[in-house]
Structures are given as structure tokens and as C-alpha cells.
Amino acid sequence: MQEKLENILKACEQALEKEQNLNDLNNLKAAYLGKKGEIAALMMTLKDLSNEEKPKVGKLINEIKQQLEALFEAKRNALEQVEIEKKLKSEAIDVTLPGLKKSVGSAHLLSQIVEDIEAFFIGLGYEIKDGPEVESDHYNFEMLNLEQGHPARAMQDSFYIDPNRLLRTHTSPVQARTMLESGGNPIKIICPGKVYRRDDDDQTHSHQFMQIEGLVIGEKISMANLKGTLLAFIQYFFGKDRNIRLRPSYFPFTEPSVEVDVYSEEGKWIEVLGAGMVHPNVLKMGGYDPEKVQGFAFGIGVERLGILKYHIDDIRQFYTNDIRFLKQFKGGR
Ligand code: DAH
Q1: What's the mean pLDDT in 105-119?
Q2: Which residue has a Cα nearest atom 7 of ligand 1?
Q3: Ligand 1 within 6 A of 170 CB?
Q4: How many domains does the chain fold into?
């Protein structure tokens, strides 16, 4: 029996030496020390022994059993240690590695331009106004002296929702809305916003673009005020050395009407906005007496200004949201 037990111990030691894995270790332990293991089987044979031999052999088996348990315990600890070290190694953090960069967004270039222009006009005491993009025929045309069938309507083909509602073709309807709201009081507003035309998109045309409408109404407002305001604005936006040129033009809602050109860096005059003195009919429809008050108005093309200032070669760049393009303009306030 002694020999048998020592052989079991030896075999177990050898098996343990090869063991690399905690799961297999448990199986091995069951084979030796489990209910159906070798030690349990030896215990079963005790009952066949004489009363004299029983305690001796029983003691012997118990000793070996304890040794085996100690061996398994030691091996378990060793394997667990290895596992912990492996884990520590694989999860090690190298604090000298560069961190993950979070990219910070910025306002879209169009928003930046609009905010820049707003800041200038706020400085002159203007209020910022808003108006609906889905507009009625009444405000988009009628109230601006463009009655049904007026030939100038053809220049502003739009997207109609029904015969009386359309996507506004310009920000000018906000002029009429503001006049009606203000109950005959003086007005000094700008209105930035999106406008829509039924145009085919190309390098210089977009069916959606932005305008900034301006309207000033009060006593003794003259064309000189208009020109002074626009010159100050252009020099704020493009630089003090820029000059502007006013060319006679036609808009149904202003009389006289002008087209404003700015002198470009390439030495050419480039049209950037339309303007004029508010037409007496428009004043009347808005509840003002053209004999007592006058007004000037202007409509700035936002993309137009951006293209000139930032040397952008295609108006569609504002709307295709190519991050590589937009990332170049991370300024803003
Ligand atoms: N609404 C005009 C357009 O979209 C631009 C314009 C011209 C606005 C003259 C004005 C103005 O307020 O006085 O073409």
C-alpha cells in the first residue's frame, strides 16, 4: 500500500509539472482527490482490511491525501500568479504614448460671415429680424410692388407649395412684414436668411443661397445715407482700401435703384448687392406716408461676399459640406 501511495504521489507530481492551465488543473484534481478519484477509491478498500491494519493504512492514505492537497494548492497559486502577470502585461498603459485627439468643430463659414456682418450692423444700432422661408405670394411679391403678371417676377422663378405659397425668392418680404408690425415708427433692421430660386446649380448658381436684407425708414433719409452706410460696411468687411461704385438699376420695390459694385483685388468692379430708396408704393402698403418719411433698403448676397473675400472658386462648396473645405475656415467669433 505504501508503495502504491508513493507511486500515486509521484505520478501526480509529474502531471502537475506539465500543467499550464487552471481548468485542466481542476480536472486533474478531481481525478486524484474527487469523489470518484484515486484516493477515494483507496479509501473504499479500507473496509476489507483487518481492524488492526485499518487505522495504520487510513492514516497513511490521509497523509498522502494532505500532501496531494498541498501540491494542488501550490500549483493553483502559481498558475493564478502567471495569469495575473499576463493580464497586467496586456493591459499595461504606456503613459508616454500621445493621447487621442478630439477634433473641435466650428461654425460653418456661412454662419461666420453672417455673424460678422451682423456685428457690424448691430454696432450701427440695427436690429436683427427673422422671417419665414415658406412665404406667401402676397409678401414675397405683392407687398413689394410686384403685382401678378409683373414682368420682373420672371427673374425670380421659385418653388411653389401651392399657387399662393412659395419658398421665398429673396429676404425682401421681411421689409413688408416689419413695416406692418412697427405701426408707422422708424425702422432700422437687417434680416439674414436663406432664399430659394429655381436655378440649375453650377459654379456660380445655387438653388439655395443666403441674403441679408437691410431696411431703414425715418425722416430725412437720403441716398447719401445709403451710400455712406454701404461704403462703411464694405470697408469693414473687405478692408479700408476698398471702394464701391453705384450703378443705376431697376428693382420694383425701390426708386431709384442701384447695383453696388466693389473694387476687387484683381482690379475689376464686381457686383455684390442691390439697393435703393424704398418705393413710395411699398411705403404706402406698409402703412407709411411717403410724403413724410423716406427709407433705403439693400439686399446683400452672402455667398457672393464670401467668394470674394475668401477666394472660393465654386458656390456649391458652401453646400456640399466637404469637411476638407470647411476645415480651412475655423475662425469665427
Ligand atoms: N431682393 C433683391 C433680389 O433678391 C435684392 C434687393 C435689391 C433687395 C434692392 C433690396 C433692394 O432691399 O433695395 O434680387
Answers
A1: 95
A2: 274
A3: yes
A4: 2
Going from the Cα of 214 to the center of ligand 1, the distance in angstroms, rounded, reads 9
State whether the beta carbon of 172 lies less than 6 angstroms from ligand 1: yes
One domain for residues 39 and 152: no
**Grid coordinates belonging to 128:** 436683427
pLDDT tens for residues 202-244? 999 999 999 999 999 999 999 999 999 999 999 999 999 999 9
- Does ligand 1 lie within 6 Å of residue 209's CB atom? no
CA–CA separation, 85 vs 203, rounded Å? 63
List the domain range (segments joined by +) for residue 22: 2-90
pLDDT digit string (tens) for 72-83?
999 999 999 998
Nearest-atom index, ligand 1, CA of 169? 4
Residue 215: φ, ψ to 5° = -145, 130
The answer to whether residues 140 and 72 belong to one domain is no
